[in-house]
Amino acid sequence: MKILLIPNYSRPAATAAAVQLDAWLKHEGVEVAWAPDKKKEPDAVCTAEDCDLVVTLGGDGTLLRGARIVNYSEVPLVGISYGHLGFLTCATIGDDIVQLVADAIAGELHLSRRATLDVEAWVERADGSVDTLRCFALNDVALTHGIYGDIVELDISVSGTPVDRLRGDGFVVATATGSTGYALSAGGPIVEPEFGGMICVPIAPHTIQARAFLTNSSDVVELSVSPERPVERSCFVDGQPVELGSRVTRVRVRRGPGDILLLDRGPQSFYQSVSRVFYGKGVR
Fold it and tell me: Which of 36, 83, 184, 241 is a plausible cystine mate for 44, CB 3.0–4.6 Å?
């Protein structure tokens, strides 16, 4: 068995916990790999293809990094929170992390299949050529206004059917997992995490008629920047920019070919987290 550890290197408690896990796992005869510190080695390549389990130690951002490393390979992923929010993670500071990982290895944790997104972005280069970039997302993709804050005008279609021409700050397409992120901030609903469709939410639309909507798991959502308003715009996938300074002209989003297998304590943990994070209620 091989386990990949992905700590948030900027948090001493997270790296110390990873060292503790590393020692215990090696004592148990488990092969251990560490993801590189992306701040010190930004170009280092990390993969989970030969791993049986991935453990992240940090906040939700660290778990999203783990999801990008796992990609569509469906290697199980468990998160331990050392961040500010920890909505997606399974355990927090003070929990017995060795026991948690032992339970994960023994198959005693609940497995939640989380839909992913397969994102295609058409990028216009300075010389007029257009490249197509392919991206993975667990949470969302957002096409928004650029740094100058100009209104963007987007044509929105679902599975070939035009839905709207939207003028506003942008548009978010999220998974159920990402419904509690950018989409929620833009006014979208909280969606049960095993819903397989997409959540589509306009950002600050300049009309009262624009509405959030949900799609079927087989639908394809396409966002095209209107040629009548060729302003600067930005595209973010799980909060990461798609080539800073590039001009994204079109985005096509569909459900990814593989899910993220997220390990947790059970289905009720989602609603406990919703109560704690969004309603300020402790678990009774």
Answer: 36
pTM: 0.91
Q: Please tell me what DSSP assigns to residue 195.
A: -
Reply yes or no on domain 2-115+260-278 having CATH 3.40.50.10330. yes
Model confidence pLDDT, tens digit, residues 214-246: 999 999 999 999 887 666 678 999 999 987 667
- Domain residue spans of the chain: 2-115+260-278, 117-255
Hey, do 2-115+260-278 and 117-255 end up sharing a CATH topology, with the first three levels equal?
no
Q: Nearest to residue 125, comparing CAs of 231, 247, 224? A: 247
Question: What are the residue numbers of the active site?
Answer: 60
Q: Are 264 and 271 in contact (CB under 8 A)?
A: no
- CB 136, CB 174: distance < 8 Å: no
